[in-house]
Every structure is written in structure tokens, then in C-alpha cells.
Amino acid sequence: MAELTGEKDTGTASGNKPKGGLREVARLAGVSVTTASHALNGVGRVGADTRARVLAVAEEIGYRANPSARGLRRARTGLLGITHRTAIEGGITDIEYFVKIVNAATWTALSHGYSLVLVPPSLDGRPFDDLPLDGTIVIDPLTGDPLLTRLSQMGVPVVTTGRDLERRDEFSWVDNELSTCAIAALDHLESTGARRIALLTGSTGQSYDQDAKAAYLAWTKERGLPQITAEAAPGTDAAQAARELLDCAERPDALYVVLEKFGFAAAGVCRQLGLRIPEDVQVVVGADGEFARQADPRLTALDLHPEEIGREAAELLIRTVEKKVVGVERRLVAARLLERGSTRGA
Amino acid sequence: MAELTGEKDTGTASGNKPKGGLREVARLAGVSVTTASHALNGVGRVGADTRARVLAVAEEIGYRANPSARGLRRARTGLLGITHRTAIEGGITDIEYFVKIVNAATWTALSHGYSLVLVPPSLDGRPFDDLPLDGTIVIDPLTGDPLLTRLSQMGVPVVTTGRDLERRDEFSWVDNELSTCAIAALDHLESTGARRIALLTGSTGQSYDQDAKAAYLAWTKERGLPQITAEAAPGTDAAQAARELLDCAERPDALYVVLEKFGFAAAGVCRQLGLRIPEDVQVVVGADGEFARQADPRLTALDLHPEEIGREAAELLIRTVEKKVVGVERRLVAARLLERGSTRGA
DNA sequence: CCTCGTTGCCAATACGTTTTGGCACACACC
DNA sequence: GGTGTGTGCCAAAACGTATTGGCAACGAGG
Asked: Which residues of A fall within a CB distance of 8 Å from B17?
């Protein structure tokens, strides 16, 4: 009982609760608040020793600028959004790729003094009306994405991950360099003996499908190999599409599946049809994840380095918000092929 | 060209950018800022017609209180955190259960004027030092969780989802009512003929494992059925644990697996051992998700209603932050059994 | 007529920071 | 000694809201 009241103010000096504000720092350092502010923000004219003293005091008492006050003054909230586009309202977004991007972006935002809020997927972007964001990351925008239009009208800076195919020059983006990475996967299949390689993509109009398809068409054309493609709508017909691809006279001897879950479904279809992986059909999926790792056999996959994508996107967005970059900027991230049991070793 | 400059200020009145602040609302309604503020927040003494007029004006010009200013004045940031506990630093968190909780909590926070930031998993909770949070949700805390200790010291209000088994009375929580729901699953197995039911749990010291185990032990004891249990550490030995359970003389005829992914792994082991599901071994998993739905056959699972959990947790946290609830409060959420192909129909 | 309680409203202040527009001093150059 | 050019620092004014402590008007009760 007595212990409780006694505990309350213990450790005030070293505690995590910011006690005094900037004023206190200034007082302890023997300068004005103006100078303290200047020293901490690295602006204005402050003597080197004075600055050092202020910084020392701030460190000492664990000073953190009150984000609300700072936001008020700077006309900024310190809040960044991140959202994933889905063709289905409220659709599942438990993709590992997505989660890893978010985590990386959160860390990056944090280290720059921003907070990242995860905006729930919604086709029209309603949630954005009530969020006071300084800027936002949009993962895998649709083609001609209405959300981007809306954000643009609202004047919210945007960085996309993947591109809106109709407006590739309007927004800054960070993207996978599929044009070369997809080819690495195809080369791998070819080098292990595949000659009839089929492509299975999604049909939601997101850029990764298109990129993979373009790479596939160019690559097969160059080699005079047959072009066998199929599309699966989001939902359950991935297995259906895979079955049509595999259950025919001139069966492919390899499958390049853009989405991880589709690849997983395709592997199930192979089993049902009595096709062995990788002996009868080799399988490569375009994004790594838990499904690819847990499948039997494990699926050879592209590691798209989502952490790097998230980090780059957040950094680009922050630079944009802070007006350190004027127009649009782009950044490509390379992927790496993880060879596993669904393809024959080279 | 001319069009561009013209477009810039179109729709100022109905636009999303807040034009004037509270002052503007007051001016248009012909009252003071004080009265406007009172009317909008439902406090103070304001005549009914005056209040209506203020609200109308605010609606009209699309007024939103500046969150920084409000935060500054109210000594609050409007930011809530949500984080998932993991025994492994930087561990994967792409569990559907988790994502659904986060989405629901985000919507709820939004509707109360808060923003939710997804705090990356980290054993020691470092990220929390740099986040100005009004409160936080901790999903599946560990036993004696150091993060909870730290948050408690920092004075950050906490609501957990699942419980810290060593401190069940110290924090408010929302939890699955496993004590009855696990039994529903066991009843189902029994009613379909199972007599040797084994339990496979995780070993990370999170409350759901313990709850499921307690329910299992009580239930089997009551019926005089054999008690066959195994634990799998986080990582890859779920298959190993399942194999030891299944590859023995007195083989179980049913498996209750607490974690979805472990159940998936166990199904793989069955296939390797030539055991048919559900003819030779029935399988129930304790949480639904994409793995359970995509497995072959699909796994009977408990739908834990993560949306409801997320919503309740957020509401409880907000009520706590706003001092509308004083001590701790608890809430149980029921689950529902989804019968699928891995168990025999009743 | 005076007092008292109630109702409806408002002026002024506080929240903690950043930024503007200086002031004072020092040094150098004619 | 004047004039110019930096340098180091500061007082005061924002930013937009919520809240405190009123003031005036009104009707009721003495």
C-alpha cells in the first residue's frame, strides 16, 4: 500500500516519461529555448560548444520533442500510411511479402521520427479520409487505381511498390526488377532441361503479372520455345487454371507461377493428376513465402527482398514529404532465386 | 496547361483539405471559438439551436479538428500501438489470425479518432521507446512477458489478447474462450468415433497452449480416455513432433493441433506415413487460416473470430486510455467449429 | 427592489514546439 | 572613428485546439 504511493515518482530522472520539455533543456544548458531548438534540429546559428552542451543535456534527461507540438508547428503529423491493394473488398492480406514490407517500412519510419499506420484494404480508400497522414505507401496498385487518383486529389504524397501501369510516370515507386529476375528463373528451368514452360499469372491488373508476362514472352520468343499462358482470377480458380494447363495432350514440363499461393495450388493439382514434382513437372513460384517453404516438395522461388523494398519505399516517401526530392523518383530491387526441391538441381 | 492551373483550387468547399480551422466554423456560425468547441465536443453549456447551427456549419465545410493541436492540448497523441509477441527476434508474423485482429482493431481505432501503428515484433520492445503511444495492444503475450513489464513501467496502458499466465490480474485482456471451445472440438472428434485423441501444442509459453492443454486434460480424464500429448518448439520441428506421435505402436486415431501451421505439417506427416485423413487419423486445428483451407483434405478448424477480438481489444483499450474504465476488465470471445474434410461428418 | 441560481455565451490562457526578425558584439577594412 | 560583414544568441509570435473563470441576462423567490 505504502509501497505503491512511494513507487510512483521513483526514477524520475532516468525514467522514460519525458519530464520537462524543451524549456527544461534550455534552462539546464543555460541557453534560450530558441537556441536549444536550433541546436537539437541542427538549424540556425549555434556555436559548436553550445550545441554540444545542449545535446548533452537533452541526452542526459532523455528529452524527446512532443510530437503533437512539433506537428502543430510544422503543419505535419508525423504519420505515414501503408496499404495493400486488393481487388476484393476486405480481402485477405496475410501474404508474407506484404507483412515483411510493412515491418521494414515501420523500422525505417521509426528511425526518421515517423510512425507508420497500417491502413485496412478498401477499394475506394474511405479510411484515408479520416487519417491525418503526411504521406502514404501503396503496395501493388491496380491499373488506373482509383485510390491513387483520390490520394493525388487530396494532395497526399504517394510512393507505390509496384506500379500503376497506366500512370507509371505520375508517382514515385520502388519495384522488383522482374524483367531480369523472371529471366533468371526461366534460365534455371531451361538449364535443367525444361522445354515446354508454361506461365500462370493472376488477373488483377497489378504490375508484377504484366512484368512477368512480358519477360516470359520475350524470353520464349527469343528461343523459339512454345508460349503457354493462363490467368487465374483472385479466389479459388487457381487450381482450375493449373488443371487446364496440365491436363492436356501437350503437357508442359515446367510451370512458372507468379503468385506463391497459386503455385501451391498448382502443386496440389500435380499430385492429383499423378504428376511428380520435379520429375514430370518442375515448378517455380515468383515470390517466396511460407506456402512455398511448407509445400511438399518445397517450391523453388524468387526471394523478392521485401525488406529492402519496404525500406526503400519508406525512405523515398519521407524524402518526398520533407521536400528533399522534387519530382518522381524510381528504384529497382533485384530478386534472388532460391533453388528448392520443385526444380531439378543444375 | 491552362487546365492544370485552373483545376488546382476547384472544389475548395467540398474538398478534403481542411481549409479554415475551428475559428472559421465559429465565424460562420456566428459564435465564439469556445462555443464552437463546446458544441462539437458535447461539453459545456450550449443552447440546442446554437449547437445544431455549429454542427451544421462544421459538416458543411468538412471541418476536422487538427489532430496535432488537439493532441497538444489534451496531452494525448491519438496513437495506439499493436504488436505481436514472438519468441524469436524478427520472427514471421504472417498469421492470418494476427492480420485479422490488426485489421479489425484499425477500423475500430479509426472510428474513435485514433490511429493504430503496427509495432514490429522485438523481444525487448525497443521500438516502443520512440513511439508516442497513448496505449497499446499486445497480442499473445509470453509468460512473464518482459515487454509488459516495460510498458507498465513506462505508464503505457495495455490490453492483451491472450494472457500473461503469470500476471492474469494485472492487465486488461480479451481472450478466446478455449475452455469451452476446445471441448467442442474434442466432443466432435469423440462423436465421430475417435477414442485415442492426441494433443499437439506449441512450447512458447503463450496462454492458448496452456488453455487448450488444460481443457484437453480435464476432458480426457473425465472420460477415462488416454492422454497423449506432445510439444513442438517454434521453428521446424512440428513435423518431427507429429511423427513421434503418429509413428508408434499405439497410434492415435485423432489429432488436436493447437496451431494451424503445425496441423498442416502434421497432415504432411500423415501422408508420408501412408495414413489417410480422416479415415485413419482425424485432424482438428485450433485456429483457422489459409493453410487449413488449402490443405488436402481441408482441415477442420476453430474459427476464433479474430475480428471480434481485435474490435473488443481496441474498444477496451480506448476506454482505458480515456479513463472510462478504471481497473482491469476482461472479455471472452467464443469460437466456432468449422467442420471440414479432415474429420468424419457427425 | 434586491438577491440568488441558472442558462447561454465568451475572452483569455495554456499546451510545447519552431521560426521570424532582430540585437549586440567582434573583427576587418578603408 | 566610421562602415560593413559575420557570428552567436534571444524575445516574441505563431500553430489550432480545449479549458478556466468569468460576465450578462433572465426568472423566481424573498
From this structure: 154-155
Of the candidate CATH numbers 3.40.470.10, 1.10.260.40, 1.10.274.10, 3.10.20.310, the domain formed by B12-65 belongs to 1.10.260.40
Q: What is the pLDDT of residues A44-89, one digit of tens each?
A: 999 999 999 999 999 999 999 999 999 999 999 999 999 999 765 5
CATH node for A178-304 = 3.40.50.2300
Q: Please check the confidence at residue B121 and state whether its pLDDT lies above 70.
A: yes
CATH architecture of A2-65: Orthogonal Bundle (1.10)
Please report, as a single letter, which amino acid is at residue A124: D
Q: Which nucleotides of D are covered by protein (CB under 7 A)?
A: 7-12, 14-22
How high is the pLDDT of residue B3?
A: 35
Q: Pick from B7, B17, B68 the residue to mutate for testing the A interface (most A CBs within 10 Å).
A: B68
Query: Does A118 sit within 8 Å of B102, measured CB to CB?
Result: yes
Domain boundaries in chain B?
12-65, 79-175+307-332, 178-303
Chain B partners within 8 Å of A22 (Cβ)? none
Judge whether residue A1 has pLDDT over 80: no
CA distance B278 to B255: 10
CB contact under 8 A, A99 and B93: yes
CATH numeric code, B79-175+307-332: 3.40.50.2300
User: Distance from residue B26 (CA) to nucleotide D21 (C1'), in Å?
Assistant: 21
Q: What is the pLDDT of residues A128-145, one digit of tens each?
A: 988 999 999 999 999 999
Read off the pLDDT band of A30 (50, 70, 90).
very high
Q: Domain A79-176+307-332's class?
A: alpha beta
Q: Provide, in whole angstroms, the distance separating residue B31's CA from nucleotide C12's C1'.
A: 16
Whether B21 sits with its Cβ under 7 A from any strand D atom: the answer reads: yes
Which nucleotides in chain C lie less than 7 Å from some protein C-beta?
7-12, 14-22
CA of B130 to C1' of D24 (A): 50
**The domains spanning A79-176+307-332 and A178-304 adopt the same CATH topology:** yes
Select the residue of B76, B106, B154 nearest A120 (Cβ to Cβ): B106
CA gap B35, B31 in Å, rounded: 6
Confidence band, pLDDT 50/70/90 cuts, at residue A261: confident
